[in-house]
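Internal tracking record. Fields below are filled automatically when a chain is submitted to the structure queue. Please do not edit lines marked as system-generated. If the sequence contains nonstandard residues, flag them in the REMARKS field before resubmitting.
Queue: standard
Priority: normal
Entity type: single polypeptide chain
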Amino acid sequence: MASSRMTSSSTSSLSLIFTFLVYLVLPSVCRSADSDQLQDFCVADFSAHVNVNGFPCKPASSVTSEDFFFDGLMKEGNTENIFGSNVTSGNVLSFPGVNTLGISMNRVDIAPGGINQPHIHPRSTESGVVIKGKVLVGFVTTGNVFYSKVLTVGQMFVIPRGLVHFQLNIGEEKAHLITAFNSQNPGVVAVSVNLFASRPSIPNDVLTKAFQVDDNVVKGIKSRLG
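SYSTEM-GENERATED OUTPUT FOLLOWS
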């Protein structure tokens, strides 16, 4: 009996230790949206024919200093479009040096009254800072709760991964924001464009029922966004 109690006690102790280790390790495993790199760097090789959840590495002998620098966010984006905004991406598709590093940045320019329309980043949390202007930033949770605040120069915001969010310029001058992501390629789902300008087109019956409007409204939106 004593031996049985000792075995049971030992098993219980091992279970507690294992549970503790799981709780200790899980946060570090779940911290990043992308997998950790297994080498110092892996500059994306866009000429490779095989892509496995990302881009293969350029041979180290072909890597240069230029692969680790990017000047694309220096230039103001053209906001002369129906939304009055422009997003310049500094992700792996334009900046191959961030491949496997789990990070990227965007520049967002918004004309007065313009909007970086409601959208989602399916693979990343977003943080950002207002460089110029006055912007209303908001997002909606999966519980349908809306959070928002008017931000000015130097103020930051964070958008949890996968939630619908937007930035609206409510100032009298062009707004400029810099946003950062914990993914080399956060992706973007622009809500109105995805629903009303997809190829092939989503059937009008689906959209009229989803938005409780008549067919002419759906056709009108599609004509403006298509």
